[in-house]
Amino acid sequence: MIFTTEIVSNKNKIFLQYEDAKNFVKKLNLGNNLEWRNYCNSGEKPNNIPSSPDIEYKNTGWTNWQNWLGYDKNRKRRRNIKYFTYDQSKLFLKDKNLKTYKDWEKFCKTDKPDEIPRNPWIFYKEWKNIKDFLNYNE
Q1: Span 81-102, pLDDT tens digits
Q2: pTM of the full structure
Q3: DSSP labels for the chain?
């Protein structure tokens, strides 16, 4: 069995201008660099937007990740949202048939209400693990 690794260079790729790419990314409502990386790895990112904008746009507009993602690091983006309690979130998720972190990620992109934090392991002090949160008992 032969395995190969293909490295794709950005050298010959044509990307959107910085401002156009940034405006597209802001609409994704991503909260941090980790969420950006997950988005890049999801296969949903268009080919005309670089995975490493900090490198690609270094001399053509890049300032920082907060600006790229469209939030100000000195204020919470969603400070007016009142989150469900841990138990309310678990109750809401009970019949969603979510079993894994991958299921959770997909749910966050499609059906998650704003009242449940995207990163519940950070938000809830009651956090145990993803299976407990999703009410999944093998």
Answers
A1: 788 999 999 999 998 999 999 9
A2: 0.47
A3: ---------STT--PPPHHHHHHHHHTT---SHHHHHHHHHTT-S-TTS-S-HHHHTTTTT---HHHHHT--TTS-TTTT--PPPHHHHHHHHTTS---SHHHHHHHHHHT--TTS-S-HHHH-TT---HHHHTT---
